[in-house]
Structure of 2-keto-4-pentenoate hydratase:
Amino acid sequence: MPDHIRQLAAALSGAFSGPRLSALPPESAPRDEAEAYAVQTAVLGGEAVAGWKVAPIRNGVIRTAPLAASRLLPDGGALPAGLVDPLLEVELALRLAQDVPDRATPDQVLAALGDLCVAFEILDSRFASISAVPALTGLADAQSNRAFVAGSVGVPWNTVEMATVPLSIFGDDQLLQQAKAGPSSAQVVEAVIWLADHAAQRGVPLRRGQIIITGARLGPMPIPPGRQIRATGGGIGEVHVVTPTRR
């Protein structure tokens, strides 16, 4: 592993509990997607993958990040300590019902999909100024992912058209935001089929029980402190998280 990849991975890992990083010197930044993904893998450090983040194609590109088991919070649990400037997104998530085989066909990928549920993604960049971070460095930082939560109840993924799922988010039962439309099931499926091939090529294939979060449909928004946060998806279910009273 090149020294600059190892050094960036160590710096990102340290910034989970220590001071945020300033902008990196050019020689320390990943030079292409392959290097950014190599940093993601190094940050995992052998920890089990509990999920992935991937969103429908945008400007001809799909990007992703594996999410370590330590980033998965239980439905209704509390946000982790040490968050600096967190933001919250409401997403739809797919829970894998079975392993995706090596060199899977699109039909095999779809056969592995189980429930569709509502999810939260918590963003908290390891950099002091995310606007000053090059895109590939942000990708190496798992696109600012800090944690995620999936609803414990869902519905079979192919019984719902994702584009029409209405979503709402509440803080202590006060409505904060709503959305009535988003990417379609076909757009999400395209990204997941791409992800299955990508993950297999990285040696971390998609496995039963993993949760795939599929991009923001509400947010990102500041996280109100000291609240019971609840998001609902019409006909799908709910997801919950408790926010700390102060950071």
